[in-house]
Write a structure and sequence with these properties.
The protein is α/β, with parallel strands linked by helices and about 375 residues long. The protein has eleven helices and nine strands. A hairpin with a 3-residue loop joins strand 1 and strand 2. Helix 5 runs antiparallel to helix 8. The C terminus is likely disordered.
């Protein structure tokens, strides 16, 4: 009996020591990754604590949170300074709506995203008028997500003008569908993934867990994309892009119809990328490599051609609704010097400021600052 108790005791002691050592390693790792996140020299590629699982939109920004000094989300769920729901009299309220390219995930610090810089440039151009620009971008959102958000919460802020900068995520969704959408078809489309309590806790509290998880997801994304590029037939890719273009047109029209019903004016913006609007192929082998890493589901030429089709939809739908369409072809945002390292669509700090400056000039040229009621003329 003593031997049996001694054996069990030794086993429990060894197990306890292992658990304690593991907890110590995890604790040290958690401290190290948090310290690095706060003191790093470059903007974090992922900011896990900014997001939570949303019942309607899949994910949303955690309100009133500061991600290690890099990004601040206010109490209303927007990046930037606090916003009052009631529209102050005499103030021009502009709302930038979109995904990560509007949120500006690769630009850190307060006041540096292009919507925040847009407020600065507009105020310099018209110092008499009070101008506010709300950054309502949420990484990962497509047009349909923002349609839901406009209906459920954004309308309450009564923007005088919405700048909708969308298309990247809608386009990428089409290529992902071409790569593996059919293979994942089942009898429960759109089912919410089950999340265990322990996973929810780690996602909410452990930066180490989130960083390792995102790294693993990035590796799998590259592998799956490379396999899909090899396996997907040209016809399958073409069908997916054609279907995506049709859905994009439908969703964009729905967004504009809802905005019109709410009395909100909208300006549509042509999508930018590192190769520039209208480009048919990467400028050089290095640029090609960047495109292949960023969107591994299809050759760069196919992706750039799809960009043109999506941009054409934006222009056509703007004409259908007689609203302002802003071309970005003269913005000068072509080339890697304006974008985050190894990125094809997200600006660095210089790119964000130039985007804002050119946007300010375009809005002024379109007459959107001349009249407090806002012009509806196209460009």
């Amino acid at each position: 009996m003593a031997k049996e108790f001694g054996w069990r005791g030794n086993l429990l002691l060894a197990l306890g020591s292992t658990i304690l050592s593991l907890a110590l390693v995890i604790g040290v790792g958690e401290f190290a990754v948090r310290y690095h996140e706060r003191h790093r020299d470059t903007v974090p590629g992922t900011m896990p604590f900014l997001y939570y699982r949303h019942s309607r939109l899949g994910s949303a920004l955690v309100r009133d949170t500061n991600y290690f000094g890099w990004v601040r989300v206010n109490r209303q769920g927007f990046r930037g300074p606090e916003v009052v729901e009631d529209h102050p009299k005499g103030m021009l309220r502009i709302m930038a709506v979109g995904g990560s390219t509007t949120f500006d995930v690769s630009v850190g610090g307060q006041g540096r995203s292009w919507p925040e810089r847009l407020a600065v440039w507009l105020s310099q151009a018209d110092p008499v008028r009070r101008i506010e620009v709300i950054n309502a971008g949420v990484p990962g959102y497509r047009v349909f997500d923002n349609l839901i958000r406009l209906q459920s919460e954004l309308y309450r802020y009564k923007p005088d003008l919405v700048i909708l900068y969308e298309g990247h995520n809608d386009l990428f969704a089409a290529f992902r569908w071409a790569g593996h959408g059919l293979a994942q078809s089942n009898d429960r489309p759109g089912e919410i993934a089950y999340v265990t309590p322990w996973r929810h806790w780690f996602e909410s509290n452990s930066l180490l867990y989130n960083k390792l998880l995102r790294r693993w997801q990035a590796i799998n994304f590259q592998r799956a994309g490379a396999r899909a590029r090899q396996a997907a037939a040209d016809r399958q890719v073409e069908n997916a892009v054609r279907s995506g273009v049709g859905q994009f047109r439908h969703d964009l029209s729905g967004f504009l119809a809802l905005a019109r019903n709410l009395g909100v004016r909208v300006a549509l913006l042509e999508n930018l990328n590192v190769s520039g609007p209208g480009a048919r192929q990467p400028a050089n082998p290095a640029a090609r490599e960047v495109w292949e890493r960023a969107i591994p589901y299809a050759p760069p030429e196919t992706v750039l051609e799809a960009y043109e089709r999506y941009n054409q939809v934006i222009k056509e739908v703007a004409a259908d609704f007689s609203i302002t369409w802003i071309s970005t072809r003269d913005f000068g945002l072509v080339g890697a010097e304006w974008y985050a390292e190894g990125d094809v669509m997200h600006f660095n700090e210089r790119g964000a400021d130039r985007m804002a400056q050119q946007m300010a000039r375009s809005l002024i040229a379109a007459g959107l600052l001349r009249d407090p009621a806002l012009s509806s003329s196209g460009r």
